[in-house]
Amino acid sequence: MRWNELVKLALLGTERSTLSPAAKSALEQYGIDTSKEMTEVILEAAALQAPLQKAGYEPTKWEGRTIDNSPEEILDSCSQKSAKHLELILKGIYAPALSEFVETMQLYQKGLPFESLPDLLDKCVKDELLWQQIRPIIGERGKWLTQLNPNWQKLIPNISDDQWEIGTKVERISLLKELRCRNPAEGLQLLATTWSEEGLSEKTAFIKCLAIGLSPSDEPFLEATLDFPRKEVRKVAATLLAQLPQSQLQQRIFTAAKKAIQLSRTEEGREKPIIQLPNTKDKDLIRDGISPKKTWKKGGAVTGMLYQMVAIIPPKRWEQYLQKTPAGILTFFAQSEWTMMLVEGLTQAANLHDNDTWKEAILRFWLRHYTHRQWTQLDISPILDSLSNEVFNAVLSEKLRAVSFLPEEHSPLIQLLQKEQYVWEERLVNLVMNQLKTWTKENVSYSWSGYQYRLLVKKAAYTIPPILEKKLSQFWLSDSYNWAGWEKDLQQFLTVLRFRREMFEELAGVEVEGQKG
Predict the structure, then answer these.
(1) What pTM does this model have?
(2) CA-CA 20 to 30 A from 316: which of 299, 439, 476, 499?
(3) Vertex 17, ends 11 and 20: CA angle to 5°?
């Protein structure tokens, strides 16, 4: 219907204008008799316009490229309630629960809700760890979506092995990572086919991908790369070889370290390390990635070289060489004037080689000495974030039981309890909650006091098993009048725990009350 023409005719008047043949034809298609008086025709057309507007109109036919429908989904979709839980997490209300939500979905083989996939894929572009977590549960819809957005395409490379040489740099990196996850040997073989023709930027980016699935079978390629002319590539190769405990590079550096750190005895018969710092012009050490330009924070280049050596040697080698336990070696190194450098180097090495025995020994050493002035600057942060859950709970429970009261706010124990990557066992939960409850009863605490304790409670809401929510609600709510300014903090703590319990129950399809977890 030519509505604009009808309006124009009505405004000008039927004496001064008339309907065009095209307008008459359009009106007649709607059943309006255009041979009637023109004013009557206009009124009938106006009366017809209202229901036509309600009925809508036929959209313009799309002439561009069409998109194939998503394949049929294989995974069972989660419930609407679980989808709502995820929505609240992605909105930031319960953001720290995302990893737990994804892990629980994997456990019960549920698929992510379709409406949340775009937000999650956007996050994965910048968070590779999250991508590895959600990839098994994105389903066929998720795989389909990744190919529709250029920003998501690099998550799942859209090129095959035979297109390796013609893909873009981003596509080739994605393909190489994909192959290294699936078949590390196949990924190395593919890289080797074009290695000699690659540019410096490509070589540097591609060799970093070998960190995925790194194994002794990669050593010959990496060892040969130590002689590459450009240091950017040599540095990556040396870093990767340092992660292989039995590599030739490790053996060469340990041989040099044994010359630098030797055992001697004092006149009293006490064992003491003798340190002979390495030569900054040692070409063999420099080839193996020990840089004379890297200084240790309290020493020069020579000290920095020895620190680098200790930081990559598997700590277990020192046990065999010195015939001592980890605790004995730490005590032995503490006799040296370079003790801080040696212990921090061991800390880096324990983390690099993921040695739980050494991590525990260093943690206990730190907790035993941190109040002494000499050790206040000791940095063991690398292992504080990578302890096994078993070690974390065992050491914290032991130390808290020994003091029987809530440690002061800046204690290392409080720092450890604030770490979000550990799951508290029930024995640790009981100790902390009882000590905190006693503290709140004995201290009138307003919003400006007890900041570290409040931070601990906020983070503990995501590290305490949700199975304990009902027990803890009863524990705190039974005498809330003693909270003394902690109402908001504890209510939020219990709210988060309740959310996590309901989230888990919905995904699992069972109630967790009474279960052991």
Answers:
(1) 0.81
(2) 299
(3) 110
